[in-house]
Amino acid sequence: MFHFADSESSTEGGTPPDRNDLPIVEVAEPHRVLYQLIYHCYQDPVNHTTIHDVTELAPVFEAADKYEMPRVITSLKATLEHFEKDHPLPVFALACRFGPEDLARSSALKWRARLHASYVDSPKAPHGFWKDMTVASSFVPEMNGMCAGVFYRLAEYLRTGVERPFSKPTSSCKLSDSEVPRPTVTFQMTQYPDADIRIQSYHSQATFFHVHKIILSTSSPVLMQKIDELSESSSEDLPTLSLPEHDNILQIILASCYSSMLADMPSFELADLPELGRAAQHYRLINLVNLCRQSMTAHIIADPLKAYLIAADCGWKAEAREAAVRLAQRAKEGRYSPYLELVDTSIYFPLLKFCHEYRRVIFQVTGGCKGRTPEEMWAAAEWICDEMPGDAGNLAWAFAMYLMESGHRNKTWSELRTMRDDLISKLAQIQLEI
């Protein structure tokens, strides 16, 4: 017998009375999801489907995947096809996550045709912004859990109409061995002869780090709890605590607990930051989190897209926004990065939405530029930003200068300054929803 997470509502489907002789399996899924999961184990969904709302499909798919039920997933795919005509985007997302690719392709085709009818072919389509708008309107909740690389390929298809596989990157877009974010930091952890505990990684049980319980416990409440639990179960004079981080990351984690070692910490590369940043936050090591965020700042100029993806994934909103602004200023958020294959669409889509709104506000405040397309203006703006790198104020001033030269020669310097200040204020109010 299954015990549902919301068992008080478990009357659907004729639930039999409780029987004490049946084993009880505790599950986290709500009744409706588990009911559909079990139903698809027994029924032919093509002829007996009970799912009439596309929003019900994602949690059932996820539960079937979680419990490794391929027969149920196959049944759900058959049900999924019934929703393609009216709900192409949710079907696309689920088809990319669980298959088949053919259904994802046909759903994308239907969605692009609908967008062209709404934006491109409409006489009311906002000039120059339809490509941004097609992407901005192409996110649905079913895409949470979908790889950001898939959304990138959808966005490219919506812009260009060039078909290619959605679910997996093409050979030219795959992560090479050199691009897979593996920690590169090298730091020699001091070994203490008077240590009362040793730490090892799950991944390399031949290496031990000899440290002190009191230092680790006072630095991290998470480590303190693990040490307390270990002390209760171990009678060894020098107990061993195993942690999931790799050796080179584990050294940094442990060294950061010793204030004398903080000054010797190296500057971290981008490849270090995903694992190191998440570990520092997991163990609540505030000083190490701050060091990671300081290292991130240096990478934003060199590779803002990759920096954004890592910062957003780690929940570092200030750094993510700084990278997003830099991308919006140069209209480069649509470029490909192999890191897109490693993060969720819920991380990537807010960037695209932010950059779209950033440009919309600029055109709203400045009134655009007669005789120039948005693409031409952004090409010029990119050049200006490269000549005048800096914050939103420089960008706003650059636009004011450009507009005066190419379409607003009748404005005074005072009017241009007012335009610039208004632009700075409005740009600062744009939210990055991560």
TrEMBL record:
Annotated stretches, region: Disordered: 1-22
Record domain BTB: where: 196-298
Top-level division of the source organism's lineage: Eukaryota
Pfam families: BTB (PF00651)
CDD domains: BTB_POZ_ZBTB_KLHL-like (cd18186)
Protein name: BTB domain-containing protein
